[in-house]
Write a structure and sequence with these properties.
About 35% of the residues lie in helices and about 25% in strands. The protein has helices spanning about 1-15, 20-30, 65-70, 70-75, 115-125, 140-160, 170-175; strands at about 35-40, 55-60, 80-85, 100-105, 125-135, 175-185, 195-205. A 7-stranded mixed β-sheet has the order 3-2-1-4-5-7-6, with helices on both faces. The longest helix is centred in the C-terminal third of the chain and has 17 residues, at about 140-160. The chain is globular. One of its GO terms (biological process) is methylation.
């Protein structure tokens, strides 16, 4: 990944996604979390203070050692037990049907094989489990989308593989999940990352 990706991007992300606006969006999504939670892209743990009382444990998946170190204080103050459960959202080292909730906030943009990661979400969810997501992605506005496609390669190089043009609800629906709730929103100063999808999905019947 190199010096920039390993040491600089996690610090930029920690600041850029640590605003009151983003915190409020995360809190909206996490309100429905319950039981055993698997969180993809845990980062420095900005979600930890936002989990509701019904959450009993968080299994955190995070590839960045720097991000994990940045989250040391949040981990020490966490209201729920937290254990790290691997580095790779594409290949979760977890048993089938172990999670009541899987959470992803600003994460699916950077996972190289996002389809595989979403299939892993489907695999680890219990039949009555819930996938909660807050992701930026492809804008429905054609003019904005054109700029997203133009800037996508540069964004990936500068922001640790972050894609601007992923349609997360559609990707979830193609990966064995059924999107049951979906709200579109915008980051006020998000630029090409401004378009957001906040939602929930359940495992499709096998």
């Amino acid at each position: 990944m190199g010096l920039w990706g390993e040491h600089v991007v996690p610090r930029i992300t920690d600041v850029a996604l640590g605003t009151p606006e983003v915190r409020a969006l995360r809190e909206r999504v996490l309100a429905r979390a319950r039981g055993e939670v698997v969180e993809l892209g845990f980062g420095s743990g900005p979600t930890l203070p936002l989990y509701p009382a019904g959450v009993t444990r968080v299994r955190a998946v995070e590839p960045s050692a720097v991000a994990r170190r940045l989250g040391a204080r949040r981990l020490a103050e966490a209201p729920v037990p937290v254990e790290f459960a691997g580095l790779d959202g594409e290949d979760l080292d977890l048993p089938d049907g172990c999670a009541d909730t899987v959470v992803s906030t600003f994460t699916l943009c950077t996972i190289p094989d996002v389809d595989r990661a979403l299939r892993e979400v489907r695999r680890v969810l219990r039949p009555d489990g819930l996938f909660l997501f807050l992701e930026h992605g492809l804008s429905p506005d054609p003019r904005t989308a054109r700029w997203q496609y133009r800037l996508d390669g540069l964004q990936q190089r500068l922001a640790g593989g972050c894609h601007l043009t992923r349609d997360v609800p559609a990707l979830a629906g193609a990966s064995g999940l059924v999107v049951t709730d979906l709200v579109h929103d915008r980051l006020r100063a998000g630029g090409a990352m401004a378009h957001l999808a906040l939602g929930a999905a359940i495992p499709a019947p096998r």
